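TICKET #2291
ISSUE: user wants both folds in one file
ATTACHMENT 1:
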Amino acid sequence: MWGKRFQEKFSDAFAVQEGIAREISQSLRLKLTGEEEKRLARRYTENPEAYDLYLKGRYYWNKRTGESIGKSIQFFQNAIEKDPGYALAYAGLADSFHLLAFYGEGPPKEFWPKARAAAVRALEIDENLAQAHALLADLKYLFDWDWPGAEREFRRAIELNPNYPTGHQWYANYLSVCGRFPEALREIQSAQKLDPLNLVINTDVGTTYYWGGQYERAIEEQRKALELDPDFFLAHVYLGFAYLRKTLSEDAIREFEIAGRLAPDEPDAIALRGYAFGVEGRGSEAGKALAQLAELSKRRYVSAFPIAWVYVGLGNKDRAFEWLEKAYGERACRLVYLNVEKAFDPLRSDPRFVDLLRRMKFPS
């Protein structure tokens, strides 16, 4: 319907983007609101080097491993050095510290304040930056356990930029752990339509079905994500989760072992394999997973939360609660899964579990 060739220097990339957007909208006779026209014309930086560094930061951020997130932080910091007023780079930096906390790459109490500070700085530069509002929303329920505040921030982020895929994705995760599955499904599908090749979003389509109890569909969606990249660590992890709920323990163990080969120093793959062994009654192999986690903790940070997983699989409630309390003291982000994760059903009637949910201020 429209086509034109542009031959410009990289330094003129921003002008080319604006020209393409303007010509497409005119050629297709799009009726844009004033706000949409401003968004199309918006430049977050005039420095092409800073922009290039920002894009590289996002590339590594989307890989979701400890090593890749470390690289993303460096690229975002370099972008800020090139342009100290680059709000998007601060938002990217906040998102990177967020993931280090979320995936247990270090103590949440160390990384969340850094994420908050970077997001606040982004909003000081641009108070209408959807990316920063989405980050603060995630922080509010994962770390502060401020559930109503999180919802307000998510809605604000989506209002400011309905085309920001991660805003819809993270809001879907929030809605899932609140048990609001139809709403969660709508949000994650919106994210997927906006960014159909994003590996993390495609994986989270599967996890949304998983939290909603639709395990066959969860397996189907995780397999689709792995068609995009067979080596994507997270898709193997969540495919393993879905197999467990279908009582396909051997298939689950295989997926956790693949995840362990892809990311050998990630505690989750070790712990979930141990959990699956425990469920299968293979206590000695579950014990080996606990020993591996203890050895790994000598080289890097290991959250208490994945260790609790193994004890749940072994049916050792007292040790499971001991480690869940340690995770509570750490402010481990994935404690928010307690309310909906079926693996914790054996603990659910225990007063200690009810008290833990109360202290985390879960919405009723």
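ATTACHMENT 2:
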Amino acid sequence: MKKRSSINIEWIEKHCYIPEGRDIGKRVRLRVWQKREIRRIYDNPAGTRRAILSFGRKNGKTSFAAFLLLLHLVGPEHQPNSQLFSAAQSREQASILFSLAAKMVRMSPELAAYIVVRDSLKQLFCPELGTLYRALSAEASTAFGLSPVFTVHDELGQVRGPRSTLYEALETAASAHENPLSIVISTQAPTDNDLLSILIDDAKNGEDPRVVLSLYTVDPEDDPFCVKTIKQANPAFGDFQNSTEVLAMAEDARRMPAREAEYRNLVLNQRIQAHNPFISRSVWETCGDEPAPLDGQVVSAGLDLSARADLTACVLSFDLDGLRHIHPYFWMPEKGIIERSRQDRVPYDMWYEQGFIRATPGGSVDYEHVVADLAEIFADVVLVRLAFDRWRMDVFGKELERAGLDWPMTPHGQGFRDMSPALDVLEADLLNGRMRHGMHPVLTMCAANAVVTRDPAGNRKLDKHKANGRIDGMVALAMAVSGGAAEAVQVSPWENPEYRIAV
């Protein structure tokens, strides 16, 4: 008896056509890697609930998704009177899969006899079987009330943050069926906190045998520019992917470092920001060991105060055994933390529950609460320097006066003059593996978002306007390491007119 995958492969190769030239098509002949993926999906002994396929761009992801879609619409995998969907983040992206599937139908005499193409609605309908396919986008007003038995999540890596209303609506609606199947087919997302990354990492753990993961990516330690490495993330390299163009992109990335991050993400399918961060992910991870405890250490700290509803950060740093040990702390207002999580597409609410963020009462950051927390933290260390950004320090200083605290405060500007040497120290520690930050998730998010800008003389500073997300933790870290255990400025800044800012 033939396996399901063999039947499905034969059906696709018999009935599906792909465009060739202007008005003609040729019958599909599945490649070795495509047949392998079909076998993994349909011959899984545990049964497949979700299949995640991730590789570089221009490897025929959309064509492969269209094959599977037609297989479930009228092929051996169809279920009578069922609904099928493809989901994308934009209407333009959603129309691509529909348009390709519609072309395949029109080019195939067998399929065209059964399937009605509804271009204006982006639907394919088989009256005889009652099966209906629709293309949806995240821009649609609602995706609730649907009942999908088969869903293709196209380019899910474009979702920023851990949640997608469209994804959740389709996945939860599929529970009405006995054997629903979701296909996630996408190039990797840039950060660990993005939805696709969370799904991939969960699949790697192997907790659910019904999830099939096929991840074509390149190890960060491999040479990113050689052909052998490129092929690891691009199964169609040299076939229907233009190898000449890909190698030209590799050469551009080698010659122009500003292009490398984009090349690594989109071509090598690595989890990396498409912009060039201040520090690469691989370098950050090499310093991810747990720091030594704070107890009794001589520390320098950096404090980055937020606007009332944003993220406040304080980072403590101390030297021990030739290494710099880092302990970060973060505060947000408790009220509205879920809404801010959705707005920023970052799991602040989850990090709060896990203890990585401290919440202050009310809808704004309560500096009195922050001062009380810092007093408790500093009670276990010898604080020799607390570097601070002058912004809002007048408000914070009043809370220190009210609490009767006299910490060694040092003003630290955010411009090129003060930040450039601080970034030099921070970068040297990271590149030489002299730091231990414990991969604190909030600080790691800030590190991934941090980008720098340069002045004509080559001096650098962290640029919040160019960042894709919050970088407060990296600002505080740079201030913490900039002076080490240098002698602190003892003049209270809120009493000095030079540092006072009018409310």
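RESOLUTION: both attachments delivered.
EXTRA DETAIL ON ATTACHMENT 2: The first helix runs from residue 4 to 15.
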